[in-house]
Amino acid sequence: MTPAGRQRRETVRMQAAELFEQEVKPSEVSRRLRVSVKSAYQWHQLWRDGGAAALASRGPSGSRCRLSPHCLEKLTRFLDEGPAAHGWMEDQVWTASRVAALIGRKFHVSYSVSGATRLMHRLGFSPQAPARRVAERDEQAVSTWREATWAEVKGRGRPAEATSASRTKRASPAGRRGDGPGADEAAPRS
């Protein structure tokens, strides 16, 4: 959730607390604040048990980041240096698995690929999918091979009249000549 979304939810909860103090019923709070009835009743229960403070946000949910703010700054610098500076010479993209490996090497902290992706997004980076090409690829040799060798290997293919437009039927019965096998035995249809 975005910071603006968290702020809006906090504001709505505090408005709900004010309405509960005025003895407004949860169903009416739901209607006024445009929230679900279930949320209004849950908030009412929290408010009854702990007052307005019980409705205050406890911060973002989920597990804490395993890297300190100092380590996050260092990781940002490492990512800015590029993958080649850290041993990935094939291409210049940060994949989530590379970032997870980098975090493990530099900070001795284990991150999953999905966790590394979320961390990258939080730092303002996005994981990239590498192009599946060898860095030493010789484009001129590839184009020469395509023009010369591939034309010979490929061959001409079937002539156009020998093919059928349908994958399931070779040709329609209406287009057949009457001299095929069994042609003289079949009675004409009426």
Describe the structure.
By secondary structure, the chain is mostly helical. It is 48% helix and 0% strand. The chain is built from seven helices and no strands. The protein has helices spanning 3-21, 26-33, 37-50, 69-81, 96-107, 113-122, 139-154. The longest helix has 19 residues, at 3-21. The radius of gyration is 34 Å and the shape is flat.
List the topology elements:
Layout: H1 3-21, H2 26-33, H3 37-50, H4 69-81, H5 96-107, H6 113-122, H7 139-154
Helix pairs in contact: 1-3, 2-3, 5-6
Keywords:
190 residues, mainly alpha, 48% helix
The main β sheet shows up as: none
Distance between the termini: 73 Å
Order of helices and strands: HHHHHHH
Oligomer, anyone? single chain
Strand content: under 5%
| Helix share bin | 40-55%
The overall strand count is: 0
Radius of gyration: 34 Å
| Low-pLDDT sequence parts | none
What is the average per-residue confidence, as pLDDT, rounded to a whole number?
Answer: 81
Structural class: mainly alpha
Number of helices: 7
Q: Sum up the overall morphology in one term.
A: flat
